[in-house]
Amino acid sequence: MKAPSPSSGTAHETADPARDLLTADEVASLLRVTPAWVYAQTRRRRIPHLRLGRYVRYRREALDEWIEQVESSSSLPPGRRRDGNRSALR
Fold first, then answer.
1. What total number of domains does the chain contain?
2. Measured by CB atoms within 10 angstroms of the end CB, which terminus of the chain is less buried, N or C?
3. CA-CA-CA-CA dihedral for 39, 40, 43, 44, to nearest 10
4. Sheet with 50-52, side-by-side order of all strands
5. Rounded distance, CA 73 to CA 88, Å?
6. Of the candidates 86, 50, 51, which has an alpha carbon nearest to the alpha carbon of residue 70?
7. Closest to 36 (Cα-Cα) out of 45, 47, 49, 25
8. Are 30 and 63 in contact (CB under 8 A)?
């Protein structure tokens, strides 16, 4: 397999799409929480995820957007969240 040349497009175009899908353990490492926390948030549908049959994967791009959303909502005073959620990270 030939390695992409630096002038052959953006990094996103040449990135391996499978690397953009993370496991719960990888998400836990990224967020510095336990895998149990990631699974609990997944069950509560509080963290973006994909179900692939019996497997659960997390898109890196969706997690980055979710993190930004949580950061912006946590800067608002309690009870004044945009999404009506008092705490997205409980």
1. 1
2. N
3. -140
4. 21-22, 55-59, 50-52
5. 8
6. 86
7. 25
8. yes
**Enclosing domain of residue 59:** 18-74
Q: Which helix (H) or strand (E) holds 57?
A: strand 55-59
How far apart are the C-alpha atoms of 42 and 69, rounded to whole Å?
A: 17
d(CA 57, CA 52) in angstroms, rounded, equals: 7
CA distance 14 to 17: 9
What CATH code is carried by the domain that includes residue 55?
Answer: 1.10.10
Q: What is the mean pLDDT of residues 19-38?
A: 96
* Dist CA 40 CA 46 (whole Å): 9
pLDDT of the residue at 73: 87
Asked if residue 6 is part of any domain, the answer here is: no
